[in-house]
Amino acid sequence: MDKRYFYETEGFSLLLDFEGDSLTRISFGMGKGLPRLPDGLSRDFLEAYFHGEEETPFPKAGLTGTTFELDVWRSLLKIPRGHLMTYASFAEMAFGSRKYARSVGQALGKNSLAILYPCHRVVASDLSLGGYAFGTDIKKALLLREGVLFKGDKVVPGEGTFLP
Questions:
Q1: 84: helix, coil or strand?
Q2: Residue 130 and residue 112: Cα distance in Å, rounded?
């Protein structure tokens, strides 16, 4: 990490790490006191995401992980804003078998670029949130921001909410 910035929007504070011009990590609830994220592609993407607009071109991402993890994270890009998949259905979509659900969950927990690679859009089969590296309160807040409905701590499926 050679550059570190702070980004804040209503309800969310983010710490962003960069290597050169590649975004390498997004962390929630941190970063106050650091320089604010300057204008540019990563800021444009975050502004669009948090304001519910069409997302702008994807920032340059410095994503590192195992081949399996990279495959999992890239497959997240197939889940549109406001849609969800269960861990099992995501594993089936990405790898052809639901038996990879646990491994998928572990890979999602290592995602260093939350929001860009939207692991918050994967939930448990019982419609609970499952896990989230930054806590389920943040996962729920992101999903609410995308228009997903909840009853308590469980997702309320609506028309088009869940992908097959």
A1: strand
A2: 18
The residue behind tokens 């499952």 is 130
- By annotation, the residues acting in catalysis are 119
Q: What is the pLDDT of residues 9-33, one digit of tens each?
A: 988 999 999 999 899 999 998 777 8
- Burial of 38 by CB count in 10 Å (0-12 exposed, 13-18 middle, 19+ buried)? exposed
- State the pTM of this model: 0.93
Give CA–CA dist 142/39, Å, rounded. 23
DSSP 70: H
Spell out the alpha helix ranges (H) of 17-148: 41-50, 67-75, 87-95, 101-108, 136-145
DSSP letter assigned to residue 57 = S
Residues 6+ apart with CB under 8 A from 128: 153, 154, 155
Cα–Cα distance for residue pair 53/16, rounded to 1 Å: 21
Beta bridge partners of 85: 122
